[in-house]
Specification:
The protein is about 55% helix and about 5% strand. By secondary structure, it is mostly helical. It has one domain (about 10-180).
Length: about 190
Amino acid sequence: MNGYIRIGGDFSQVYDLETMKALLNTNDTIGAVLRIHFCCEHIIDIWCNKVTSNEDFFGFGRTYFSMKVSIAKKLGLPAEIAAFLKNFNNLRNDFAHQTNFVISNQKLDDMRHLVDQIPSYGSQPIPKINDPSWEGLFDDRKLFWSMNDITTIERLVLIYYAFSMKTLSIFNKEFSERGISFSYSD
């Protein structure tokens, strides 16, 4: 055993293997943002489906991302998760409405701070993204926030990775406390 758990179960679309490979291998910032946005939408869907015991809560028709976040928050989605999702949706909208939009380092730092404010649960808490001892291994490349040659896309990957792992820890805790069936590994 290599010490890694394949994320699957109810969280499988949040870590869809093809989407993750495309995210890690893209050189296109908007492509990275859209892939992360897509995965974040699955996080919202999981929350709403689970807390309402409805396999397809949003199956009634087109619902905008921002409306999904508002509904999920009304259904008890923690405010810190909702704040990050709203912020990320604003980033996606910036790309949709500004042809030459470039993500500033300040915007990346703002998103990092939002993720760092999200609590984590479990035997090994997830550290702050810019913690010097924290690094991610992606496609055999070690990434950490303050490395000299880190790209915007790689910072987005680190942000999404920390966000999704914190969300997984919260969902596991919340659903367990509520007696809701939830699995995250295959």
